[in-house]
């Protein structure tokens, strides 16, 4: 962990524990740097990350102040419903305009064919090849700070397939709350599997507090980073509000994290899954945005109790992704190519954003 990440984590934990209270002013960047014997730039990175995730608020010429979180209060103030929504986000892959290193992928493909030979023709394990699940587990811990044991990762052929698995796992008798507006195929797949959906109005911060408190939904499907089509990213306060909702209702949250690798800040936005301490979050992601739409491969992470239920109810399902595709992607991740690709795209996005600002 780098110094700014360590400082960010310490301050965040102080906010969550109540040691730093809402409205309290943080030390100036220079004062804290001198006190800790570190550079002002390190403090600036940590403060910027705290601000990006909604833990603190910057006030011009006044400094940084702790923001109130849902963990410390039953209801979190959000922007009024009349607040204008951001402009629609682009639905195409964020990596589409960045040159992809096909030579590296081709080299891995040739090596996998040579090394695995006839083993590539075998049926994959039910939840996916262990090599890919372990590579995903290591990547999520290294790049996202997420503790996701390989044995709780399920590999499938894209998000739409996994939506259907979620309904079959949790049950058609539950009511599913979705963002309004949201990616239209989420509702289409849920309803095609017999589920009842409630559309919950969005404001500028995520699902509006009033809509969240009033719904009779038992499962909440959210895209907290760059929700499509509004482009809304939920702050830490809103993400804690979702967790508070789940705790009160005994509900579950499906975190659809399809675009989060391309956060243009100093590091990817913290997931609801990472914030959860009660085992109430199903995390879902795919490679359609981060690599290419043709990459029909996704994965979900189940809480421990739900993993046991999955084995009981749906353990008969065969994995829908070929062994060859899984091993190639596992090597692509484990050998660092995937993270280098993400960093190149994020640098390009940051540069584009700077050009727009100027």
Word description of this protein:
The protein is α/β, with parallel strands linked by helices and 358 residues long. The chain contains 13 helices and ten strands. It has helices at 3-17, 29-36, 40-52, 102-116, 130-144, 159-170, 184-192, 209-214, 236-249, 272-275, 304-314, 323-334, 337-357, and strands at 56-59, 63-66, 153-156, 175-180, 196-203, 206-207, 219-222, 252-256, 281-286, 298-301. The strands form two sheets. It has an eight-stranded mixed sheet with strand order 3-10-9-8-7-4-5-6. The chain has a two-stranded antiparallel sheet with strand order 1-2.
For the largest sheet, list the strands in their spatial order: 3-10-9-8-7-4-5-6
Count of helices? Answer: 13
The main sheet comes to:
8 strands, mixed
Radius of gyration: 21 Å
Which runs of at least 5 residues are low in confidence (pLDDT < 50)?
70-97
Question: Mean pLDDT, rounded to whole units?
Answer: 85
List SSEs in N-to-C order.
Answer: HHHEEHHEHEHEEHEHEHEEHHH
What is the first-to-last residue Cα distance?
Answer: 33 Å
Helix content: 40-55%
Protein structure class: alpha/beta
**Portion in beta strands:** 5-15%
Number of strands: 10
Give the CA-based shape.
globular
């Amino acid at each position: 962990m780098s110094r700014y990440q360590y400082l960010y984590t310490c301050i965040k934990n102080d906010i969550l524990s109540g040691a730093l209270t809402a409205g309290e002013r943080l030390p100036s960047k220079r004062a804290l740097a001198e006190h800790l014997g570190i550079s002002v730039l390190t403090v600036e990175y940590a403060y910027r990350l705290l601000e990006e995730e909604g833990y603190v608020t910057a006030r011009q010429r006044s400094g940084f102040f702790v923001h109130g979180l849902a963990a410390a209060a039953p209801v979190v103030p959000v922007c009024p419903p009349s607040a204008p929504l951001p402009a629609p986000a682009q639905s195409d892959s964020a990596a589409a305009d960045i040159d992809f290193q096909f030579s590296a992928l081709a080299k891995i493909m040739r090596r996998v064919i040579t090394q695995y030979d006839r083993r590539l023709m075998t049926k994959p394990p039910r939840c996916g090849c262990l090599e890919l699940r372990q590579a995903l587990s290591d990547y999520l811990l290294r790049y996202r700070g997420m503790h996701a044991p390989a044995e709780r990762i399920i590999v499938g052929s894209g998000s739409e397939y996994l939506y259907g698995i979620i309904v079959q796992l949790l049950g058609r008798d539950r009511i599913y709350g979705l963002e309004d507006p949201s990616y239209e195929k989420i509702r289409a797949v849920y309803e095609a599997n017999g589920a009842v959906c409630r559309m919950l109005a969005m404001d500028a911060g995520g699902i509006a507090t009033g809509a969240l408190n009033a719904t009779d939904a038992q499962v909440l499907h959210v895209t907290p980073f760059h929700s499509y089509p509004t482009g809304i990213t939920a702050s830490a306060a809103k993400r804690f509000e979702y967790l508070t909702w789940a705790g009160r209702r005994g509900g579950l949250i499906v975190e659809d994290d399809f675009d989060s690798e391309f956060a243009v800040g100093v590091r990817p936005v913290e997931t609801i899954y990472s914030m959860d301490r009660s085992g109430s979050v199903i995390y879902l992601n795919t490679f359609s945005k981060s690599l290419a739409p043709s990459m029909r491969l996704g994965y979900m992470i189940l809480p421990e109790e739900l993993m046991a239920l999955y084995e009981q109810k749906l353990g008969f399902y065969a994995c829908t992704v070929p062994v060859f595709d899984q091993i190639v992607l596992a090597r692509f991740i484990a050998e660092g190519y995937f993270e280098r690709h993400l960093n190149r795209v994020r640098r390009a996005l940051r540069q584009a954003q700077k050009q727009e600002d100027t």
